[in-house]
Amino acid sequence: MIFLCLILGIVVSSQDFEDFVLLRRRNNPHAIAVAFATALRLNDKTAYELADKDLWPRLDEWMKNHQVKDCKHDLDEILHWGEDVRFIIDFVCYLEDGGVYTFVVRDIIIHDGNIVVDWGEVSEEVGQ
């Protein structure tokens, strides 16, 4: 029983599990914006599920050129600002070398409460 609890604790606290949850939680426009930003950060194909088909060529370019940073531990600072349909998502995590990685997607626009129709500037920063 203790072994099972330890394993469950490792799985539940892992960054991979956190990312999995963020990618699949889509019950409101905020959650869709977070899922989309997470998909961009990870180069995850979920971005295509969340985006209007007109954005797919732009996503293709993003997936081809973006280099994923391997987050080891989320700082629990997924911040989002916005009203109704336009969001800024700010994700911060620790990297394996101890650096702090910040990933920000501005102006994620959600249409009809469930589909991304545009996104603005993406900025990434690695600091100590």
The tally of structural domains comes to: 1
Computed CA radius of gyration, to the nearest angstrom = 15 Å
Largest sheet: 6 strands, antiparallel
Strand content: 25-35%
The pLDDT mean sits at 80
Global structural class: alpha+beta
Give the CA-CA distance, first to last residue. 39 Å
- What is the CATH topology? Nuclear Transport Factor 2, Chain: A
What is the number of strand segments? 6
Tally of helical segments: 5
Supply the CATH class: Alpha Beta
How helix-rich are the residues, as a percent range?
25-40%
What this model shows, in words?
The protein starts with a helix and ends with a strand. With 128 residues, the chain is of the alpha+beta class. It has a single domain, classed as Nuclear Transport Factor 2, Chain: A (Roll). 24% of the residues are buried. Helix 2 (15-24) crosses helix 3. The chain is globular, with a radius of gyration of 15 Å. The chain is built from five helices and six strands; from the N terminus they run H-H-H-H-H-E-E-E-E-E-E. It has helices spanning 2-13, 15-24, 29-42, 46-50, 56-65, and strands spanning 71-74, 79-83, 86-95, 100-111, 115-118, 122-127. The longest helix has 14 residues, at 29-42. The model is unreliable at 3-13 (pLDDT under 50).
Brief summary:
40% of the residues lie in helices and 32% in strands. The longest helix has 14 residues.
